[in-house]
């Protein structure tokens, strides 16, 4: 087999003219035309073989360098060959325009990217993943799911709302210091607490007589169309006075009438006159007796009329509960039932107010409604209110029966939305069984 000398540079002996004519195109000529034809054929078809691309050349070709790469020409340029090159370049240009172009600025050359053999990479994909790596991937996936669950819980977690945001321009809402005001009320209710067993020092009056008196005063309050806070202050004055003074049975109604008169002077714009109070007592007392009892009560209480009653807390807690008229009326119906019962003196006024609203919510909706906002402003949780709420449900059950039905008759009218007709929240009692 003969060995070709085409690739042997020592066999090429160009003339001076030929060397000057073709070396400027990067091609050396030979005397053998057949070998030159083979070489030209190899160079012209060189695009079908893989090439080694220099990184520097690649960077320059993508616009990183302004220097144009040299154009290799492997054969003398004749008119026919130039026409072929121009035709092929034009055809290549039309093909390139049909392909989506990548912006030059989005193309980057990674200097440190390792070159991976395709066959080795495909073979490596089929190999099993080590146990440690599988465990790591599983752990990461579990951690991501756990983190997503925690984030979803945070999203749906109930938050307290600002109940005073809509009253910033209302001067009567005193938004600037309303929190300080109720902090003072909470402090004062502790100082002005009434002893829950003060009846032990009364020799002629008992708990039943007190309940009858307050039930009657509820009807008097309703007939005179007095303000709601007047009733709560009336009951407070009666209990505070009986805590410090012993009263005979026949003077107990007089104490109730005078307490109503004092509460009207403190809360009402227009108040009933003394003769009206004497009249509703069926003239059991004289005008002089009313005025003397008024002085006795004021001196005993040292003229201290400003005390936090359940009413002031009711207004704040109902606002926190975002209540409507139906919830308002039912809440006041339940708390007025509490005013009649002597045993409810063991609870602070704010606690009774919160428990009444919570019980009213359970009565209307049948489910838990004590929100984070209610808990924030009342300082009481649902668990703390359950015991008192069950007592209120018991009062609600027997409100229409027995002898003390004044509160039920009052709230069984259209003016109060027939709140007394609501069915008690009996399911609160079933939780104890």
Automatic annotation (TrEMBL):
PANTHER family: CYCLINS (PTHR10177). Residues 215-299, 312-394 form the Cyclin-like domain. InterPro entries: Cyclin, Cyclin-like_dom, Cyclin-like_sf, Cyclin_A/B-like, Cyclin_C-dom, Cyclin_N, Cyclins_cyclin-box. One of its GO terms (biological process) is mitotic cell cycle phase transition. GO terms for molecular function: cyclin-dependent protein serine/threonine kinase regulator activity. Belongs to the cyclin family. Cyclin AB subfamily. It comes from the Eukaryota. Pfam families: Cyclin_C, Cyclin_N. Essential for the control of the cell cycle at the G2/M (mitosis) transition. G2/M cyclins accumulate steadily during G2 and are abruptly destroyed at mitosis. Residues 308-425 form the Cyclin C-terminal domain. This is Uncharacterized protein. SMART domains: CYCLIN, Cyclin_C.
